[in-house]
Amino acid sequence: QPISNTLFGRAAERMGLHPFPMPSANVTREYENPYGAKLHPCTYCGFCERFGCGYFAKADPIICVYDRIKEHENFEIRFESQVLRIEKSADGQTATGALYLGPDGREYFQPADTICMNAYALWNVHLMLVSGLGKPYDPETRTGVVGRNYAYQTIASVDAFFDDSVVTNPFMGAGALGVVVDDYNGDNFDHSDLGFVGGGYIACKQYHGRPISYQPVPDGTPRWGAEWKRAVRENYGHHGDLVVHGSSMSTPENFLDLDPTWTDAYGRPLLRMTFNFPDNDRRMSDYVMNRAVEIAENMEHVQSVTSSNLAAQGSNYDIVPYQTTHNTGGAVIGTDPSTSVVNRYGQMWDHHNVFVFGACLFPQNLGYNPTGPLMGLAYWTLEHMKNDYLPNPRPLMDA
Ligand SMILES: Cc1cc2nc3c(=O)[nH]c(=O)nc-3n(C[C@H](O)[C@H](O)[C@H](O)COP(=O)(O)OP(=O)(O)OC[C@H]3O[C@@H](n4cnc5c(N)ncnc54)[C@H](O)[C@@H]3O)c2cc1C
Ligand code: SF4
Prior knowledge:
The structure is a single chain. The protein contains six helices and 15 strands. By secondary structure, it is α+β, with helices and mostly antiparallel strands. The protein has a domain at about 5-25 and about 155-245 and about 275-310: Cholesterol Oxidase, domain 2. Strand 4 (about 80-90) and strand 5 form a beta hairpin. The strands form five sheets. Strands 1-9-10-11-8-14 form a six-stranded antiparallel beta sheet, with helices on one face. A three-stranded antiparallel beta sheet has the order 4-5-6. It binds flavin-adenine dinucleotide (FAD) and iron/sulfur cluster.
């Protein structure tokens, strides 16, 4: 582990907490997966926090499964194509296929018996809304379901500045190289008198150190000029990066719908997001951030600590500073068609041959990153599609 992560783990342990290495999809030694894909040991170049790994050291579908499935006769991928709409049958009960824009700029219709929607949480919802799949959520009457339960993630950050004896070399790292404390997440702690539900994990990560986007400076540093440059130079290599990834509870006021004014290049209304942090989540974020500050102050060789809560009381959600890409909800899973878009098998209540994948299924965003659970749900849905649905296509649950 890089030194900042190690110092974080040691401080947390001294405080009676339970730090552990962050799970990640990077490999530390040569590995051949069951499909014959070969992965190389990670070089800790730090590129993959936001980008794919050109060295084949991070698991993703292109590296791990594409080479094998592209040989299957019944598999075809059409690159540079964009689905514009899902078409419905005349009675509206099922979907008939996808209208898409090909690489030549022309529109094509791909008929389909069964459709899997995999376009990412937000774009699944957008496609449903522009295609008339499911009933759109109406925040006035609080009826309808598509766009309902939109939630995000509640992020706070803490910076620990070390004295010169701790050299962190932040340019060496990997996308998810960190140590985590999960003692303040979910029901891992007693909320009874704290005034909020939910929680978050605290991580110390060394994941990129990019020269332009990584310039940690202590509080009170001017935002530009010679003094700022001096502070960046002095602190770049002596910094620990702590972050709180907290839960985000869906509320009736936070939702996705179609923009009444703006359209995209194809004339479709844009997706509109209406969101602000609920008070519950602001309280949660303040609480867990303060626990992170305590750990940072306990790290050896720390000279100063600064913190910032993007969901602080009095502030509004701002889409500009990057927080996370962990959008959830909008087409949630459930057992009641009046509050969910898909049944427990990921099958749309209103159109039984449409199955939905991704974090749009989550009714709330709990204090973890979404990709693990959304992949678990994908396995669950595929199992039921294969064994229950495809042999006998029908609604898998009564509405
Ligand atoms: C910088 C960054 C860091 C992240 N870090 C983490 C992390 O540490 N942990 C974590 O759990 N999650 C992380 N995430 C989130 C994670 O990437 C997503 O949760 C996950 O990729 C969602 O999987 P998905 O299959 O639903 O959608 P995606 O992986 O987004 O796949 C959707 C695919 O559909 C395609 N598509 C979309 N619309 C159309 C259309 N109309 N027609 C045709 N194709 C279409 C897209 O091109 C894309 O290939 C991160 C995301 C980003 C951007
Ligand atoms: S740090 Fe990320 S991009 Fe660099 S080799 Fe490791 S997995 Fe690949």
